[in-house]
Design a protein that fits this description.
The complex is a heterodimer of chains A (115) and B (108). Chain A is an all-beta fold and 115 residues long. Chain A contains no helices and eleven strands. Chain B contains no helices and nine strands. Chain B starts with 8 loop residues before the first strand and ends with a strand. The model of chain B has no long low-confidence stretch (mean pLDDT 97). The chains are: A mainly beta (115), B mainly beta (108).
Chain lengths: 115, 108
């Protein structure tokens, strides 16, 4: 059973870069799709983008200019970087194993506040 | 971009049937996925490919998808089913995964 654990700073200053890591256990980053999804307080889910292994990526066009998703097969983890953050980026950020079309295993999420 | 529309809330008494809809342009031509998110927890996939249930999801959860509306049906609703439910599709033209706005299911 795949297990995902997100981690990163809980507080980020406006205009700085948010950096999160998702450690994968019980499965391999290699040859799998991994998505990042976020959920602002009291709001719905927003898909940020995905990476295939440590290679190809697709991003939500609303965030594409500020987001980078990378994969490290040696550490079996995926990462999210989001630049120039504002208060609107305050959210719970989830990492999820992606069966290309949908997210079948989710991490517990990590809360990030921009302030 | 592709838009999925869900009712903000649905209420049902225990033991009754809850139906949560997800509307979208010709949504019946797409595969539909449903997630359950209980308060303070991460989402959990409950339906994939319109009507299939992942291992561990009760048979009380079922799905359908036709025309411009997809429906998640929860039979014999229990207090533990109270949660937010989100529909999701893959929008092939843009390779995006699109979520509906979510529906809060309240068990009376």
């Amino acid at each position: 059973q795949v297990h995902l654990q997100e981690s990163g700073p809980r507080l980020v200053k406006p205009s700085e870069t948010l950096s999160l890591t998702c450690v994968v256990s019980g499965g391999s980053v290699h040859n799998n799709y991994w998505s990042w999804i976020r959920q602002p307080p009291g709001k719905g889910l927003e898909w940020i983008g995905y990476i295939y292994g440590s290679g190809s990526t697709t991003y939500n066009p609303t965030l594409r200019s500020r987001v980078t998703i990378s994969g490290d097969t040696s550490k079996n983890q995926v990462s999210l970087k989001m630049s120039s953050v504002t208060a609107a980026d305050t959210a719970v950020y989830y990492c999820a194993k992606t069966n290309y079309y949908y997210m079948d295993v989710w991490g517990k999420g990590t809360t990030v506040a921009v302030s | 971009s592709y838009v999925l529309t869900q009712p903000p809330s649905v209420s049902v008494a225990p033991g009754q049937t809850a139906r949560i809809t997800c509307g979208g342009d010709n949504i019946g031509s797409k595969s539909l996925y449903w997630y359950q998110q209980k308060s303070g927890q991460a989402p959990v996939l409950v339906i994939y490919d319109d009507r299939d249930r992942p291992s561990g999801i009760p048979e009380r959860f079922s799905g359908s998808n036709s025309g411009n509306t997809a429906t998640l049906t929860i039979s014999r609703v229990e207090a533990g089913d109270e949660a937010d439910y989100y529909c999701q599709v893959w929008h092939g033209a843009t390779d995006l995964r699109v979520f509906g706005g979510g529906t809060k299911l309240t068990v009376l």
